[in-house]
């Protein structure tokens, strides 16, 4: 089995090959260039140096062929079998003067240019897609998708699909069929449409869906092309809940009759990332405000597992689908969570604050994090870790353009087999490290806090000669306040006399005796430890929960009530009840009735088919909880 190879590239025009597991530079494997692209199977890499595009064989690191370039390529793409190469250049005045196209197709063996076409849309890519057997080439124009026979490109297109306003397309092989996906943007009165056709019959689509307020819509197929995800985005959010536009996610499933089932995934919050498992028909979505939710969906678009962890905004699957890494870079504090997808347990946390590129090796044994020049101009370099978080290689550069693992075809490497015991031990060590970090954080926070002398257990020795400042009534009042706080925190049982609102401490178990005219009752735990106090508080909370569960509302037990309406957790309901018990119950009931009136008004709007925002929808869901609280307070 061949070993995974890491490629690094710097501004001093060096392009290096490194071989695992030590990741040392291979001899005579340095090339000059500023841009490169791998083939899908990882057998070849195209490196661009000024006026030349060098195709290198990654197995022996030798030149395969050289393509003479006239302009710097914006995009480089290999065909599935590596016989052809596409280069796309940004259209400029030079192309106009020389009357030549900016999208070229090359023969990789001979290095000859086969055809050149003019293309003006740099925002839209891909604009050219090969079929899996390399017999057809699909090219996108502004108003059509043209299909060419690769053996005779000069003849022209053999088939065309004309449609106005095409913004995105895809051409994939699903079993024995070739599927063409087209997204065309609508206008003010006409919605945007997403359609799927079976090549070469473009009469009636297999799937067609019209969506309003959709500026972009991309399709992401599963590994066997049985399912797909449609990502729809608009620059302006019509509901007004988001500032940076709205994103929606839809699920497609091909049925036995050949037609597609269309379903909204049902995520109303902002979507940060979504990716398919490369081996199964399951996908993971990261959405919501930080800390974001990370949920795994099955092949029927039903959520069945929720990941824990901190704030993360991206994900990376290993090629065999056995490991999943959640990353929190960009505008977040950083960090990588590595999960075992066979056992659904987190096995490692990588405490890395910066990272612009990251990914797995094709054998799923290594994970890399790199900081490149395009994203960050400081601390350029890369780190390579094992699956269980051991640092294998760390290298820094003044400027690093790119760093990544070489891709490979599935089945090239032996599958990784890890026992349950090793994953359990890794999970235990991760949990222990997590607890230690939390304790260290708490200790740091406590060390930064100001602790007065009486709280530390010290007694301040006052000098006999007291200055004018200490005699001032303002300072005397402050000292009295401190004493009151001290009395409140030093709780004890007993009775005593105290002044006004201050509760006196009695002669029983309390430490201080009350003074003054008024009588007060001191309550507390005396000389009990903090652990004993925590246990008592936990027992009280458990009793409150049991009382809450035993209660019922309108004949419905409270457990069923909470599981059905599920807007609040039990602890939150207990908190709300405690706050309401402190207040005047009649005033609380009045306020709750006002809220119910507002909810009834929103219900009328909903019945009249008026649009409601997310806040109004959640308000309607809270009605039974308000009714429940009124019922409890009246009792």
From TrEMBL:
Composition-biased stretches (Basic and acidic residues): 528-538
A GO cellular-component term linked to this record: cytosolic small ribosomal subunit
Keyword entries, A-Z: Initiation factor, Protein biosynthesis, Repeat, Translation regulation, WD repeat
The keyword Repeat belongs to this UniProt entry's keyword annotation: yes
Annotated spans, Disordered: 433-554, 603-622
Residue ranges of domain Translation initiation factor beta propellor-like in the record: 210-402
Keyword check for GTP-binding: no
Matches recorded under InterPro entries: TIF2A (IPR011387), TIF_beta_prop-like (IPR013979), WD40/YVTN_repeat-like_dom_sf (IPR015943)
GO function term, MF aspect, one: translation initiation factor activity
Biased composition (Low complexity): 539-550
Ranges of compositional bias, category Basic residues: 469-482, 490-522
Top-level taxon of origin: Eukaryota
GO biological process, one term: regulation of translation
TM annotation in the entry: none
Similarity section: Belongs to the WD repeat EIF2A family.
Record's protein name: Eukaryotic translation initiation factor 2A
Source species of the chain: Anaeramoeba flamelloides
């Amino acid at each position: 089995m061949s070993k995974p190879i890491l490629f690094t590239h710097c501004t001093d025009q060096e392009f290096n090959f490194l071989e695992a597991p030590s990741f040392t530079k291979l001899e005579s494997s340095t090339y000059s260039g500023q841009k490169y692209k791998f083939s899908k199977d990882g057998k070849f890499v195209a490196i661009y140096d000024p006026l030349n595009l060098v195709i290198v064989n990654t197995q022996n690191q030798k030149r395969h062929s050289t393509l003479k370039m006239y302009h710097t390529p914006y995009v480089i793409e290999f065909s599935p079998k590596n016989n052809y190469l596409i280069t796309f250049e940004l259209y400029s005045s030079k192309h106009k003067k020389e009357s030549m196209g900016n999208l070229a197709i090359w023969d990789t063996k001979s290095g000859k240019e086969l055809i050149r076409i003019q293309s003006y849309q740099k925002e839209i890519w891909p604009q050219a897609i090969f079929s899996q057997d390399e017999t057809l080439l699909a090219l996108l124009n502004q108003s059509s998708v043209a299909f060419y026979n690769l053996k005779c490109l000069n003849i022209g297109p053999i088939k065309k699909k004309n449609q106005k306003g095409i913004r995105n397309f895809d051409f994939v092989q699903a079993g024995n069929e070739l599927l063409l996906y087209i997204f065309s943007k609508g206008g003010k009165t006409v919605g945007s449409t997403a359609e799927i056709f079976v090549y070469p019959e473009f009469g009636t689509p297999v799937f067609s869906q019209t969506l309003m307020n959709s500026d972009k819509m991309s399709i992401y197929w599963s590994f066997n092309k049985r399912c797909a995800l449609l990502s729809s985005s608009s620059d302006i959010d019509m509901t007004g809940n988001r500032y940076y536009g709205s994103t929606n996610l839809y699920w497609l499933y091909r049925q036995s009759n050949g037609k597609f089932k269309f379903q909204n995934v049902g995520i109303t919050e902002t979507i940060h990332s979504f990716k398919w498992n490369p081996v199964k028909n399951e996908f993971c979505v990261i959405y919501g405000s930080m800390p974001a939710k990370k949920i795994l969906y099955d092949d029927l678009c039903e959520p069945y597992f929720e990941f824990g962890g901190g704030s993360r905004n991206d994900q990376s699957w290993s090629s065999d689908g056995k490991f999943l890494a959640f990353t929190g870079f960009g505008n977040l504090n950083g960090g990588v969570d590595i999960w075992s997808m066979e056992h659904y347990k987190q096995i490692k946390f990588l405490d890395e604050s910066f990272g612009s590129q990251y990914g797995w090796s094709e054998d799923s044994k290594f994970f890399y994090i790199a900081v490149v020049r395009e994203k960050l101009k400081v601390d350029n370099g890369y780190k390579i870790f094992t699956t269980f978080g051991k640092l294998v290689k760390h290298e820094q550069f003044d400027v690093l353009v790119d760093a990544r693992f070489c891709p490979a075809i599935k089945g090239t490497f032996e599958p990784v087999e890890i026992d349950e015991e090793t994953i359990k031990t890794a999970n235990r060590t991760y949990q222990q490290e997590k607890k230690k970090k939390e304790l260290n954080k708490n200790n740091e926070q406590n060390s930064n806090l100001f602790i007065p002398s009486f709280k530390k257990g010290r007694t301040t020795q006052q000098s006999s000669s007291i200055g004018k400042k200490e005699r001032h009534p303002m300072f005397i009042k402050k000292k009295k306040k401190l004493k009151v706080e001290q009395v409140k925190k030093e709780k004890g049982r007993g009775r005593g006399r105290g002044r006004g609102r201050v509760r006196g401490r009695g002669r029983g178990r309390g430490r201080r005796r009350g003074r003054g005219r008024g009588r007060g009752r001191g309550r507390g735990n005396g000389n009990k430890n903090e652990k004993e106090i925590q246990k008592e508080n936990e027992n009280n909370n458990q009793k409150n929960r049991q009382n809450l569960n035993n209660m019922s509302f309108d004949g419905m037990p409270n457990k069923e009530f909470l599981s059905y309406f599920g807007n609040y957790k039990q602890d939150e309901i207990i908190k709300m009840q405690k706050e309401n018990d402190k207040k005047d119950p009649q005033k609380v009931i009045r306020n709750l009735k006002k809220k119910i009136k507002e909810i009834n008004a929103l219900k009328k709007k909903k019945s009249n088919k008026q649009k409601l925002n997310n806040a109004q929808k959640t308000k309607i869901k809270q009605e039974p909880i308000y009714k429940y609280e009124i019922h409890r307070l009246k009792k």
